[in-house]
Amino acid sequence: MPTSRWVGPHAPPAISALGLRKSYGDRTVLDGIDLRIPAGSVFALLGPNGAGKTTTVRILSTLITADGGQAQVAGHDLTASPGGVRAAIGVTGQFSAVDGLITGEENMLLMADLHHLPRREGRRTAAGLLERFGLAEVAKKPAAGYSGGMRRRLDIAMTLVGNPRIIFLDEPTTGLDPRSRHTMWGIIRELVADGVTVFLTTQYLEEADQLADRIAVLDQGRIAAEGTAEELKRLVPGGHVRLRFLDPAAYHRAASALPGAGRDDDSLALRVPGDGTQRELRSLLDRLDTAGVEADELTVHTPDLDDVFLALTGGTDQPGETHR
Ligand SMILES: Nc1ncnc2c1ncn2[C@@H]1O[C@H](COP(=O)(O)OP(=O)(O)OP(=O)(O)O)[C@@H](O)[C@H]1O
Ligand SMILES: [Mg+2]
Predict the structure, then answer these.
(1) How is 286-310 classified by DSSP, letter by letter?
(2) What pLDDT digit, counting tens, does each position of 231-273 carry?
(3) Which residues make beta-bridge pairs with 33?
(4) Are the beta carbons of 110 and 99 closer than 8 angstroms?
(5) How far is CA 52 from CA 23, 47, 48, 212, in A?
(6) Identical fold at 3-98+146-234 and 240-302?
(7) What are the extents of the domains in the chain?
(8) pTM recorded for the entire structure
(9) Which fold has domain 3-98+146-234?
(10) CATH number of the domain located at residue range(s) 240-302 in this protein
(11) Ligand of minimum distance to the alpha carbon of 52
(12) 47 lines ligand 1 (CB under 6 A)
C-alpha cells in the first residue's frame, strides 16, 4: 500500500479517542481522555506511577474495555470491531511476554503461529527480525539467559511478527542501561521511518523528548497538557543561569551582587532566573565584573521536560530544578 496515503496531516488518525473513562471500584483511573494521533507519528504518554498509562494502552489495544467514551484504532471502532483493531496492532506490554524456558527463536515462531503465518514464512520472518534486532547469535539459547536489554529487544521483535502498522510500547526502555536505551530508540526510529505509528508510554522525559512528535502528560485521570516537546517546555518557567564558585568568599560576594539569585550554600552555586538571552547574560556578567568576582562555572539552563513533568503533575514548588 502506498504509505503517502496514510501519513501526513490529512491522513485519518491512526488512533483517536473521545472521553475515555475507566474506574476500578470507586477509584477513577481515567476521567475523560481525548486523543488524536496521526498515522506515522510517535506519541508519548507520560505520567507518574499509577497515572493510568498502562490502563490506556490496555483499553486501546482491546485487552480491557473502557467504562465510557469511544475510540478508533486503525479505522476500527474499539467496541464494534475489536478484531479489526487487534489485526492492525502490536502490543509490547510493560512486563515481558518472553517465555524464558524456550529459546528466542522459539518465542518468535510461537508468535508466527499465533499470526497463522505459513511455516516457511514464519521462519523467514523470525530469522529476519532476530537478525535486525541483534539477536541472531543468541537465537538458539533459552531466553532466560538473556540480559534485560536483549529480552526487551526480543519482546519488540515478537510484537513485529505480524507486521503491525500501529504498535503500543508500554515503557519500552525501563530498566535498560543508556546504551541499550539508545539501541531501542534506534529501533523505534526505524519503525517510524517504515511508516509505523508508535504509541509509547515512558517515565523518561528525555525519551519522549528524543522520540515523540507529540507528548501528553497524564495526571489524576486527565491529560494535563498535550503538545510537542517545545510547546510543553514553553508552558513552564524554569530557565536560569547557574553560577558555581570554588572560593566561598567569591561566592558570597557574587550572592550580594545578585540579590535575586537562588542560593545553594553547600555547593557554592547561584541560580539566576532568566531566559538565557545574550542581553541578559551580558548584564549578568557586567554585574559580576563590577563586584570583582569571576564564576568558576557558568551554565545556561532552559526548561526541559522534567520541569514540565514536575510542574504539571504537582510534584514541586521549584520548577526548573533538574538533576542531570
Ligand atoms: N485490574 C485492576 N484492578 C484494580 N485497580 C487497578 C487495576 N489495574 C490498574 N489499577 C489501578 O489503576 C491505576 C492506574 O494503573 P496503571 O497501571 O494504568 O498506571 P501506570 O500509569 O501504568 O503506572 P506505572 O507507571 O506504575 O506503570 C493504579 O492506581 C492501579 O492500582
Ligand atoms: Mg504502567
Answers:
(1) HHHHHHT---SEEEEE---HHHHHH
(2) 888 777 777 899 999 999 999 999 999 998 999 999 999 999 8
(3) 20
(4) yes
(5) 10, 8, 9, 19
(6) no
(7) 3-98+146-234, 240-302
(8) 0.80
(9) Rossmann fold (3.40.50)
(10) 3.30.70
(11) 1
(12) yes
